Each structure stands twice: as C-alpha cells, then as structure tokens.
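User: Please fill in residues for this 688-position structure.
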C-alpha cells in the first residue's frame, strides 16, 4: 500500500466513524496498520471506534499505543479522557486524573477555555478522592491564570469562594499547607467582595472567623479578623463574642479582654460569652457567689466552652460547693471533645480540680472517682501536688498503707512542700495521733500560711488534743479565727467557733451569730442550723429562729429537713397552735418514719387538736419503735382512758408499773378502777 493509499484508507475510516459505521472504520485502520504499524491516526481511530463498540480494553490499548508514538499530540489524550469519562468505566479516577494533568500541559499554551474545563474536572476528581492538597494547588493555579488574563474582580471573588467550598471539609486533616490555602482563600474572598457590606459578605466573614477559631496557632490572624469585622459591622455582636470566647479559652484575662467583655454586654446584655466574661471578672475580684451566678447563666447560653466550665468549678470550690464543682468539671471534660483537640491543655487542670473537689466529699465512692481522675493526668507521677492529692484520696477511701507510703515519699523528695506535711498531718489526724498531727500542720502552715484548711485542721487538732487543750481552747480558737479570716466561706470553721463561744466562753449571742453564718454557708449543716435556732429561742429572738426554719422548710423537698420540721412543730405545740404543729410534725415523720421521738411529738400535737384516735396510733407507733419510751406508753394509756377504754388502759398502766414505779401510771390506774366502779354502780351491779 502506497502513501497515497494509506491516506485514502484513513480518510475512509474517518468517514465511517462520522457515519457511525465503526466496524467498517476498524477494517480501514487495520489495513493501514499492516502497511504502517506506527501510524498515529490509525491507532487513534481504532480507539475511537472500539470505544463506541463497547470494547473499552481494545480502545484503551489503542489510545495508549498512539500516546506512546506521539506523547505530545492531543487527539489520543482527548480520546482516552472521553473513554474514562464514560459511565461504565469504574475505578479509573486515578488514571483519568493523570490524563487531565497531561491535557492541562497540552492546553496551557493554546485553548484557555479547554484548559479551564479540564482544570475544573481534575479538581472535582481530587475533591472526590479527598486529596485536598492537590485541590488547593490546582485551583490556585487556575486563579493565577485567570489573574494573568486580567479577569474581573467579581469572577475572581467567585473563584476564591469556590476554593473555600472545596477545602471547607479539610480542617481535620492537620496539614498546614492545606490549612494555609483555605485561610488564604478566605482572606481573598472577604477582601474582594463588591459591594463590601451586605448579608453575603457578613456570612463569609463569620465563616472565616469560625474557621480560624478551629486552629489554635492562628491566634493573631483570628484577633485581626475579629477586629476587622467589628470595624466593618460595629452593630454585629458575633466577632466580639468569638473574641471574648478566645480570651476565655486562652486563660489570660488582660485589660483588653475585660474591655471586650464590657463592650459585648453593652451591645447585648444577654450574650453568653459576655456574661461568662463578667463571671470570670468576679472570680478575679474574689466575688465568688456572683461569679458562680454569672458563669452558670452564661453557660446556659454558651455551653461548649471547657475553660468557662473550669472557671465555674473553681468558683464553686471557693464557696465549698464540692459536688457542684465535680459536675462542672464533668461538663468541662465533655466540652473538651477529643484529647487531641485544640483545648487539650485544659484537660490536666480540669482533672486535677475534679480530684480536689472529690477528695473534699467524705465518701469512699468519691475517693475512688478522685483516684481515677488523677490516673488520667499526664505525667501525674512527677507532680508532687498531684501525688499529695492521690494520698488524700487513698486516705478518704481508708487505704492507710498507700496514703502513708505516698506521704513518706513526698517528705523525702519534697520536704519544703506544704502539701507533703499537710498529707502527713491528715493521716495522723485520722488516726487521732494529735501531737504528731500538730507538728505536721505547723510545718504546713509555716510553708503556706495562706491556706485556710491547714489552720482549720490545726484548730481541730487542738480542739480534740488532750485534757489540757480541752480545758483551754485558746489555741484552737486562734487557728479557727485565722481560718475564718482567710476563707470566710468555710462553714465548718464557723460551726466550731460557735461551739467555742457557746460551750467555752458562754457567749450565746456571739455563738448564735457563728452558727447562723455556718448555716448560711452550708444549708445541709444540721448541727449549725439546730444550734442557731435553739440559741435564738433561748435569747428570746423567736423571729430569727422562725425565719431560719421557714427558709429551710420552704426549700425542702418531701422527706428531707427533719430537724427543721421537728423544731418548728415543737414550737407550734408550745405556743398552742396544734393545727400547724400537726402539719410540721407529719413532715418530720415523713422525713424519718423510724424516729420514735417524732411520732411521740406528733401524738402530742394530735392530742392538743383533740384527735384522740390518731394521737393513740402515734403514741403506739412511738412505743413500737422504742419500747423503752415510757412516756409514749403512758400517753397511749391516758388516751385510752379518755376514750373510756378502761380495761385497755388498765392493762397498759400495769405494763408500765411492772418495770418501774411511774407515779402518773399509778394515778391513771386508780382513776380507771374508780371509773369502772362508778360504771358498775350505775348498772346496779353492787347488789351482786
């Protein structure tokens, strides 16, 4: 076949393809290849015809042969791209991407529109494969080409926005190059918007700031973006809220941060981050109750802020709400998310604070939970303060050997650490080795004099120490006063000060004040509440006593606050208000159905009200619970006598007199016999 015949055959093949006579085209191409086996066009036509005849393998082989012959010719690459793009071609993304890369090279100096089309297709493949680095690189190349061509600002803006969409799911990749590409796209997009001010631009800026907040090392960029948005949109609170949360999470509260909190609250008084900031300011100023209130309110609106939960726990610890502090620490740990996240540095302080709170709760389960929390702290074994906490947790759980071992290790390795001596003191105190405890707590106070707890336990040591200190509680008083001065939220110290003024100094008025303060600080402290009420009654200040009891009973849920219900019920009984007495004493019985004294008092109240049958039941219940309660047995007999059940009353009186000479029972027995005699005379039984 001559050269002229080869050209004619190729022309026939082209005509056959145009007429969709693909088998005919293959015949012409094969004839050409017999003569010229390296004919580029023949291989391309075979690829095209085979593809149309659903023979993909033959088509692919033909195109690859043509590419091998002429690697920089377009036709074969275009044909191969068309083949791979067919719906029936699977698992060819990687091959197609390589084809597109070659086509980009070939189109670069020629048809720009085709270059853009192929570039879009290539980026789409990379995006599907989650190859974000290649997405960023290719798309930036496209934008660069557009810029060189002098594209309009609006078109470039849309391209940067498309790049943001392509890379928005890449924030978890932890690839700095991809991250920088995404942030660069955001910066270009927000700066190229026209008009600048508008809802779309505002949303774009919000997305940019939200993206920046995911990268803890982009602090400067985040602050700048927030300030820039604040300048453009002075009435929008979002950038100020993000900036405030950033300051909270950073843990450093500068004047600038406090200024941001104030501005945000001026703009929106109900803003969660603003109220959280106010709470942290109160915490710094040692206004702990206000801090708890503000932080709690702020976290109801902005709950996913681990640092704020940690500040709340810290404030709750300052006012000795240890159980609340544990719950706040748990919320903080939930908000942290994965330990590898941007808030990871908060994990250890939160776990340590949680353990501190749990150690203060006198419960073996709490101690076990404290140990578990401490085990999660990184490098805990190298931190002596954490080790001392572990020792206290062991002590709370009753594991004396483990606690003593840690104490000895700390005293050996860190003799100048207050916590080392304090742990030793707690161990001696729990074993009632008061002289050794005194020595340890004095050492702890010497090293950390501002810790109220050390003074408190030194005072307790003196309180229980020996006969001499029992007679003279002056040393204990000094330490309790120091503890109260250092920490005026420490309710237990005020309780012991009350004990001192009541039992030692005989100053009922001052004692009452201390007990009242202790109870205000800890509403669960029944000892202080009872003492404050009793002393108020003794001092003739009934109003104060009743106001304390009213406050407790109003807050009490069913089955709680027995002491308050009992005290007020007895007061009503003494002041001849039987209806109120019955209601309060019923509540006391519900709180503790096995308290014989409550049942006895309830019986008295029913009796005062004239409810004899229910009074009888109450007295009988009291004597069942405590058979030694003679008064209840006597009152039951007395009620039976009043109801005319003389035989029953006589039997009950005789039961009392078998065990002791109880004069009221003798009197009652005589009266019953007399009443029976009168009854007999009335019925004319005397003649029998």
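Assistant: Residues filled in for all 688 positions:
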């Amino acid at each position: 076949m001559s050269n002229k015949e080869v050209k004619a055959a190729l022309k026939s093949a082209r005509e056959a393809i145009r007429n969709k006579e693909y088998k005919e085209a293959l015949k012409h191409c094969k004839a050409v290849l017999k003569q010229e086996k390296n004919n580029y066009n023949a291989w391309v036509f075979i690829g095209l015809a085979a593809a149309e005849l659903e023979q993909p393998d033959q088509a692919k082989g033909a195109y690859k042969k043509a590419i091998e012959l002429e690697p920089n010719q377009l036709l074969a690459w275009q044909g191969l791209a068309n083949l791979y793009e067919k719906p029936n071609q699977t698992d060819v993304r990687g091959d197609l991407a390589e084809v597109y890369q070659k086509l980009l090279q070939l189109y670069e100096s020629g048809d720009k529109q085709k270059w853009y089309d192929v570039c879009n297709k290539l980026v789409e493949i990379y995006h599907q494969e989650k190859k974000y680095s290649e997405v960023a690189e290719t798309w930036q190349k496209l934008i660069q080409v557009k810029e060189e061509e002098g594209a309009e600002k609006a078109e470039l803006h849309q391209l940067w926005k498309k790049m943001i969409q392509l890379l928005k799911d890449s924030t978890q990749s932890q690839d700095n190059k991809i991250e920088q590409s995404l942030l660069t796209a955001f910066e270009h997009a927000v700066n190229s918007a026209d008009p600048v001010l508008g809802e779309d631009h505002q949303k774009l800026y919000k997305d940019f700031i939200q993206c920046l907040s995911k990268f803890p090392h982009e602090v400067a960029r985040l602050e700048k973006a927030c300030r820039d948005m604040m300048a453009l949109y002075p009435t929008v609170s979002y950038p100020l809220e993000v900036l405030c949360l950033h300051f909270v999470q950073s843990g450093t509260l500068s004047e600038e941060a406090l200024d941001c909190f104030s501005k945000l609250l001026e703009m929106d008084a109900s803003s969660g981050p603003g109220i959280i900031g106010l709470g942290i300011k109160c915490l710094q100023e040692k206004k702990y109750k206000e801090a708890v209130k503000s932080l709690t309110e702020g976290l109801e609106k902005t709950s996913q802020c681990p640092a704020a939960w940690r500040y709340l726990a810290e404030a709750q610890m300052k006012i000795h709400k240890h159980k609340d502090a544990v719950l706040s620490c748990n919320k903080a740990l939930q908000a942290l998310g994965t330990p590898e996240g941007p808030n990871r540095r908060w994990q250890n302080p939160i776990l340590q604070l949680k353990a501190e709170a749990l150690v203060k709760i006198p419960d073996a389960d709490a101690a076990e939970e404290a140990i578990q929390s401490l085990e999660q702290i990184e490098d805990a074994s190298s931190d002596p303060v954490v080790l001392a906490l572990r020792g206290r947790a062991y002590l709370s759980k009753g594991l004396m050997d483990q606690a003593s071992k840690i104490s000895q290790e700390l005293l050996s390795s860190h003799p100048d650490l207050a916590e080392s001596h304090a742990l030793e003191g707690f161990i001696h105190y729990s074993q009632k080795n008061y002289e050794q405890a005194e020595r340890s707590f004095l050492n702890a106070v010497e090293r950390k004099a501002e810790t109220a707890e050390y003074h408190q336990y030194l005072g307790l040591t003196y309180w229980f120490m020996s006969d001499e200190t029992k007679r003279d509680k002056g040393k204990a008083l000094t330490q309790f006063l120091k503890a109260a001065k250092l920490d005026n939220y420490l309710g237990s110290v005020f309780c012991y000060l009350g004990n001192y003024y009541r039992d030692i100094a005989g100053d009922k008025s001052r004692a009452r004040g201390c007990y009242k303060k202790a109870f205000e600080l800890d509403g669960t402290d029944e000892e202080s509440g009872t003492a404050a009420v009793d002393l108020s009654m003794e001092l003739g200040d009934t109003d104060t006593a009743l106001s304390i009891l009213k406050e407790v009973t109003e807050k009490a849920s069913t089955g709680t606050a027995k002491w308050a219900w009992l005290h007020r019920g007895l007061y009503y009984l003494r002041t001849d208000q039987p209806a109120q007495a019955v209601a309060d004493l019923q509540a006391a019985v519900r709180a503790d159905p096995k308290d014989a004294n409550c049942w006895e008092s309830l019986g008295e109240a029913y009796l005062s009200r004239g409810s004899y049958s229910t009074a009888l039941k109450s007295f009988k219940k009291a004597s069942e619970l405590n058979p030694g309660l003679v008064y209840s047995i006597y009152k039951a007999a007395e009620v039976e006598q009043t109801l005319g059940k003389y035989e029953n009353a006589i039997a009950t009186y005789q039961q009392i007199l078998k065990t002791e000479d109880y004069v009221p029972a003798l009197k009652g027995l005589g009266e019953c016999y007399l009443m029976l005699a009168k009854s007999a005379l009335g019925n004319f039984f005397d003649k029998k």
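For context: The two ends are 162 Å apart (CA to CA).
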